[in-house]
Amino acid sequence: MGFTFHIGELRVFFPYDTIYPEQYRYMCELKRALDAKGNSVLEMPTGTGKTVTLFSLITSYQWAHPELGRLVYCTRTVPEMSKAVEELRKVIDFRVEVLAKELDAGSEAPKGLAAGHILAVGLSARRNMCVHPEVSKEGDRERVDEMCRQLTAPWTREKKTASCVHFEKYESALGQQSQLLDTGIYTIEDLRVKGMDKEYGWCPYYAARRLIQASSVVVLNYQYVLDPKVSLASSLGGAPSLPGGKMRAGGLSSIEPSIVVFDEAHNIDDVCIESLSVKLNRQRLDQSSGNLTRLGNEIERVKKEDASRLQEEYKRLVQGLRQAGQIDEAMADQLQSPVLPEDLVSEAIPGNIRRAEHFIALLRRIVNFCRRYLHVERAQCEGPLSICHKLEEDAEVDSKSLKFCHERLRSLLNTLQVSNLEEFTPITKVADFVTLLGTYSQGFTIIVDPYPEAQGIYDPTLILRCLDASIAIRPVLKRYQSVVLTSGTISPLEMYPKILGMSNVVATESFSITMERKCLCPLIVTHGPDQVPISSRFSLREDPSVVQNYGSLLEQLVQTVPDGLVCFFTSYRYLEQVLEKWYETGVISRVLKHKLLFIETADVVATTYALNLYRQACDSGQGAVFLSVARGKVAEGIDFDRHYGRCVVLFGVPFQYTLSRELRARLEFLRQHYDIKESEFLNFDAMRQASQCLGRVIRSKRDYGVMIFADQRYARSDKRSKIPDWIRHFLEPGHVFMASDLAVEAAGNFLLQMSQPFEEKTGVGASVLTPQALQELQAEDSKASDSKEMEKSAIFAPPLKRLKLNLSTPPDPPSSNLDAVSKQIW
C-alpha cells in the first residue's frame, strides 16, 4: 500500500496506491513555496485529500532537509485534529516500511529517527485530556481548569493539602528521564491511554506540553498559536530538541526554520480579531471591584505573615518583565499576556506600579473611570489615543504604565499564590483592556453601546475591538520560515495576504477538482414560477411572495431529492421568521409528509442531539431535512457526506449585520489602510460563508450533490466571481438565471444520472492516477516545461549563435566586419 515518487530532487512518501492529479499539483506548489522559504495561500477542493497531501509533502521535505524545524499544523476542532493525526500516522508508517525494505539483508536495521520515525503529538484543552477521576467528570471547561490548577499549583503541593497523582508522576518522570515517550505518533486519545496506564500514569495534558518541545510535528488548535491568552509560543519556539534536551539554534529574534499550516483558514482573520478584542459591562466592572478588594485584603495578610514574598517580587520587577514573569509551568498557560513588542519584555516595570498596593490603587482608578465612561445614552466610538488622554486627565493614570498592567497582575497573582484564577477573570479582562489600549495606537477602536442587543434593554457595554487582523498573526509571520493558509473555500486568494499583512507570498493557487463525470450540480435560483424575484435582502424579507416561493422550492425538493437535504439561512432571526410563516401557511406540514424536519438552535447540546436524529433518519432510508444557519456550528464543522447530504440549499446571501458598529469600524479601517472598498469586503465575507455552507455536501470524489443558490443576487458577477473555482467550473450557463421549478427538474435529472453505475478510468486524464500514470503526467509536464524554455530561448538564440560565429573569426578583424557584427546583434 502506497508508493514513492519524486518532485524534482525531493522524494515523496505517499501512503495510498493512487493519487489525485490535484494532490500532485498541490504538492508542486507547496514545494515551490518551501524551496523559496516563503508563504503560500492554497485552495484545494473539499474531499480531495488535502490533509494527507500536506503531511506527505512536508514530512518528506523534513526528511530530505534535516535542518528544517518542526511542522505546526493548526486546525479548529478536536475531531479534525484526530483525523489529521491519523493521516500523519499513515504517512510515517508507510515511510518506515519503505525504508526498512530498502535496507540490505545483512545490514543492521536503524532505529528511531534514522529509520524514518518521528515524534508527533496532538494537544487540546485540559477538558479533553484530563484523566483525573474527579476532575475529568466535569463538563465545563473553566471548571476543569480551575480544579486542575488547585491540584497542581506549586504552593498547594508544598503544603500537601491536595494533589493530583498524575501530575506528581509527570514531575517524577521528568526528573528520571529527559524524554517521556519514544518516537511515535500520539493522538489525544493515545496520550489519555498512557495517562491511565500503570506503567506511565502521568498527566496527558502536561506531558503533551512537554513533548511539544521535542516533536517534529505538532497538531493543535488555532488559539494556541494566535490567541496570546493561551499561546504556546515559548514551547513551539525553535527546532525539535536534540538528544539530551539541548535545543537547536534559533531564538525569538531570528526566523525559525519551521513551517506553520493553518488548515480550514477561510475565517482566520476573524479568529485573529477575536483573540485581541475585549468586552466589559457594568456587571464585569462590579466584579472587578470585588476582585480588587479581595486582592487588597490578601496583600495585607501576606504583609503580616510573609512580607519577604512581596519584597522578592519587587526586586524581580526592577529587573524587568522577563524575570518577573518566571512562574510555574502549571500556571503559565492561563496567564499569557496580550501580544507585546519584544523590546517591551526587557523593560523594567514602572516605579509607580511596582509595589502591590500602588498597583491595586491604579487598577481601582481605572475601573472607576470605566464605570463613569459607560454612563452614556447614545453609542459612541473613539480611538485608543483619545481614551488614554482621558485616563490621564480624569483618573490621573500615567498612560506609559497601561501596557504593563497584565504582566504586573500576572506577577501579583503568582506572588499571592492564587490558584482559583477564574474568580479573578473580571479584573484580568480589565488588565487586558488597558494593556492593549496602552500598547497599540492604531488598529483598535473603543465602542460604547448602551443597547448592545438591540432589544431596548439598557445594558451599556464597553468594547475594545481589534480592527487589524495582521496584529495577531504578525508574530507568526515574523518568526517562522513558511506559513501556509489552506482551505477548500478560501477564494478570492488575493484578499488574505492583503488583510493579514502577509509578505513574501510565493504561491497563491486554486486547484480545480478533476472528475470523469459531473458530480456537482450548482444551480442559481433567481425567481419563482410566478416570476417574482426571490432574495433575503432586507427590503424583501417581509414579502409574502418571497417566503412562499422559498417554501414551494423546499416542498418540491423533498419530493425529488432522496436521503438528506440541508438548508442554510442567513441568521437565526431570519430562520425563525421564515419558519413562522411556513407554519402558518402549511408548508411545514406538507414537508413532514415526505421527510422528517430538524432545526439547528443556539443551544449546542440540542443541536448535537438533532444532528444525531437526522443521521438516523437518513440511515433508515426515509431521509430528512436539516435547517441550519450560516456562520453557525453546523456550517463550520459538520460534514454531510454521501446520503447525509444529496442537496444543499442556501436561502439568501449570508451578509453580516451591516449596521453593526464593530463592522462599520472595521470597514472604515480597511478602506483607509488597505484601500479595500466596503462592498468588496462585504461580498468577499458573504461568499466565503456561502461557499463553506455548500462545501459541506462534497467530501470525496465518489460523492455527489446538488448546490442551490436561492437568491437573485448570486447571478450578479460580483457574487458569482467569488465562488471557488472548483464549484464555478461546474456552473453551466443555463443554470445561472433559473426559476425554482426548473431548478428542481434539473436537480432531479442530475440525481437520476448520478445513480447509474460508473467505472473509474485510469491513466493520464483520469481523476485518479496510478504510479505509472503519475510518471506519464510528470513526463508530459517535463516536456511542456522544456518546450516553454525553448520558446523563451528561441527569441535570443539566432543572434547569439551568429554572434558566436562572428567572434570565432580571426582577431583584429577589419572595422567593416565589426560593424556587421554589431548590426547582427542589434
UniProtKB/TrEMBL annotation:
Pfam families: DEAD_2, HBB, Helicase_C_2. Its EC number is 5.6.2.3. Residues 806-826 are annotated as: Disordered. The keyword Transport does not apply. PROSITE patterns: DEAH_ATP_HELICASE, HELICASE_ATP_BIND_2. Gene3D superfamilies: P-loop containing nucleotide triphosphate hydrolases (3.40.50.300). Residues 815-826 have a biased composition (Polar residues). Its cofactor is [4Fe-4S] cluster. InterPro entries: ATP-dep_Helicase_C, DinG/Rad3-like, DNA/RNA_helicase_DEAH_CS, HBB, Helic_SF1/SF2_ATP-bd_DinG/Rad3, Helicase-like_DEXD_c2, P-loop_NTPase, RAD3-like_helicase_DEAD. Its main location: nucleus. It comes from the Eukaryota. It catalyses: ATP + H2O = ADP + phosphate + H(+). Residues 9-314 form the Helicase ATP-binding domain. It is found in: Nucleus. Belongs to the helicase family. RAD3/XPD subfamily. This is DNA 5'-3' helicase. The lineage of its organism: Eukaryota, Sar, Alveolata, Dinophyceae, Suessiales.
